[in-house]
Write a structure and sequence with these properties.
This protein has about 220 residues and is an alpha/beta fold. The chain contains seven helices and seven strands; from the N terminus they run αααββαββαβααββ.
Length: about 220
């Protein structure tokens, strides 16, 4: 399943250790969603555009001139909501990166790369974003992402993540979709928070049940 809005990197499926994988591999719904235009249409159908606006407003909260690192940026949908920022996004999918470059031109930097093998990064970022990525990574890989973000953020910078979550009492369909997600590591809120405790002094988690037009439970995490 592929319902987490912004769950952009099919290529994060188990996993991107050795070299960036292209999202065009796979079959069935995975192959269809790897086509950037169809992927974007599907996201719009489930309400991803509205949800993305809420996520940026409630959790990212960019200010003009922020330097933003987007880990697993997909086709760069979130860029249009960030305002005038210095933006650097990377993703394992060559097709997603090409689509992002065509759409945004010189307004941002897009590169092929993975958490395990990132492109050259300049550091000094105010914000790091990882939307729909952590639940594709096991604990060791997820901590690599957290460490990468911490190393690239200046003091006071924030890492903001969003992923499906398993919680007691959630809607049965939301729980079923989370368990059947392509990502093999959908966690509880406590397990997500544990990934960032240590590298970050402050870790705040927020549950959202109404981001999409269908029952689905997201967990936003802000780490500073």
């Amino acid at each position: 399943m592929h319902f987490a809005f912004g769950d952009r990197s099919c290529s994060y499926d188990r996993v991107t250790h050795n070299k960036p994988a292209d999202a065009s591999t796979g079959s069935g719904i995975r192959r269809v969603l790897s086509v950037s235009a169809l992927y974007s249409a599907f996201q719009a159908l489930v309400g991803a555009d509205r949800a993305r606006m809420r996520f940026v407003s409630e959790h990212v909260r960019p200010t003009q001139g922020d330097a933003v690192l987007d880990i697993g940026c997909g086709t760069g949908e979130i860029l249009g909501l960030l305002g005038e920022q210095r933006y650097f996004g990377f993703d394992p999918s060559e097709s997603y990166i090409e689509a992002a470059r065509v759409r945004f031109g010189q307004d941002a930097k897009f590169h092929v790369g993975s958490v395990a093998a990132p492109p050259a990064l300049e550091g000094g970022f105010d914000l790091a974003i990882a939307v729909g990525v952590l639940h594709h990574l096991d604990d060791s890989e997820a901590r690599t992402l957290v460490d990468l973000a911490r190393d690239q953020l200046h003091d006071g910078g924030r890492l903001i993540t969003l992923d499906p979550v398993l919680v007691d009492g959630q809607h049965p369909l939301a729980r079923t979709l989370a368990k059947r997600d392509r990502g093999e590591f959908v966690r509880s809120p406590e397990r997500y928070a544990a990934l960032a405790n240590g590298p970050f002094e402050s870790v705040q988690i927020t549950r959202h049940d109404d981001y999409l037009r269908l029952p689905y439970t997201h967990l936003a995490m802000e780490c500073q």
